[in-house]
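Example record

One chain of 630 residues, shown exactly as stored in the release files.
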Amino acid sequence: MNNIEHDTGPSATGQILCGTRTFKGVSPDSIRTLVENSRLRPVSPGEALFRPGDRYDQRLYILVEGNIVMHRPSGSQDSCQPGDFIGLANYLDDDDYHSAAIATTRTIVLESRAEVMHRLEQKHPDLFNSLNRVIAAKLRERSPDRSITSGALAQPVTRVMKSPVASCDPKTTLLEAFRLMQERKIGSMVVKDLEEKLLGVLTYSGLAEVMLLTDASPDDSIMKAACETPRVIEPITPLWEAEELMQRKTAKYLIVVEGVKPVGIVSQTDILRTLIYRPGTLSNRIRRSATLKELVGHSSQLADAAEDARETNHRPSAAVRLLSETHLMIQRRAIQLTLEWMESKGYGPPPADYALIIMGSGGRREMLLNPDQDNGIIIEDSAAKENKQVAEWFERFSKRVNRNLDKVGYMICPGEIMARNPMYRKSLSQWKKQVSHITAKPTEKAARWSNVLFDFDTLYGNDALTMELRRHVLTEIQTKPRLLKLMADHDAEGRPAIGFFNQLIITTKDEQGEWIDIKRNGLRIVSDVARVFALQNGVAVQNTSDRLKALARIGKLSDDFTVTVQEAYEELLDLLLSHQIRQARAGKKLNKLIDPEKLTPQSRGTLRMAMRAVKRFQDRLQDDYGTEIF
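Predicted structure tokens for this chain:
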């Protein structure tokens, strides 16, 4: 042991913590403040900081020197490393101790009072982020093993990679690379030397950004301005591992290499296409459906599709996105059959360009097993003005679409947010006018409406109309942001299922029991906060995971905080999706209600930690808008 036990000042302790994995990225000033507001505590060999059954002592410990072994309830033992938090779960949950922390050598820990650490988290974002990084790691540790041994994602990347990969050499200029990618209609190229060694990767978006936003010359070498460090994998890597690497590293492309030689390239789209279009799946049968009766039969197999998606996707968010694509295929085919019916009855084809939009969870690609209908229609302005025949055609079409979607399993929206409602069947200019009105004179009702409507995407028709409406929404929100404050207030009405002492709390009671509403008191809060932050910052993507990544890219959220929220979101999605699959298998009515008493102790601990992360995310929104959460 060095002289730290003789140095009670912050210097020696701070130097040790600065070099640890936990405090990577934390400034020396923040570490010094932490040390100055804590105390060094010596621990003798064999002495326990705490044991199972001990009351939580409102302390958080950080190993500085020596060795502490954690004895888990499962019987496993883990050695702590310098900088590791000890008793973090208890700090987060305000719960009594279930493990033992025992010193095996002469040891020194930094002991911080919980109230002090909470205050430091608020004042020092880098300390806040270090805790988030640890929380994310803990959530991963508590997660079930999601390794995939069969199905489409168990295949090696060589099955889907593009090969040979487009390439260029280091002498290629920015202009030459730009023209080459335009001509070939490709989004990426690798950069190789004369010996075929991989030097980097060039993306179309990265190249365009360099040329438009920097002072780079078109004659500059790509190596000087636009060449990115590649993410590489081996040919035997299974697709689920490739997908996980893309998620963790926020990479759109992976380069497949043999030794140092690039032999192929894999994109996120390649993996998604593999899942959606694999032969013999429900998707292909949906496309071939000739009648609504056939579609009804296919929609009854959605539980099978959900289970298949869960078993063949490493991340629950990817499984839910894939399940959503299946829902959308059923709905699109129902729309196509409706159009065929319109023609067969003599009403003719659509008299004007239009976009049938889907809102809410469908617009985000986050549908579970029992979504209802949230949809509307945008009609092009030129045909909609003062044209009774156009209005009558779309009214008849909308009513038939909503009726047919109900027949194939998508129940009528209780709030009538559907195309058959004239409020949601308007011309583009009328939609814009309504958006402008609610942003100029926002109300609580408009905020609730916006939290559904503003997650919209094209279900069928001309996507250009949808994109124009989305552009208008983002512009109006940027110039008149008062609506966002009311949307944040609306989010605050739903609280995470975690109490004042960070214990899981019941959110719903009925004659059959006490429950936690995983959607209302967990998932919806994450999607609400991500939506408000996305609109606030002009982010156009709809999916919650995509929004989180975008917010990290623009610096609104730190990478560590984003990972924490995403991991919590994954846990909640997995819990709810598996719950609904079990209900469907048992022939029960589907809901979003979980009985925490039926969860294993490990699952309850994971749920509690996930809810704690959700609360931290909601608190971040509160900090931005001053929303009081009771």
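Notes: The chain has four domains: 3-123, 155-273, 287-472, 490-625.
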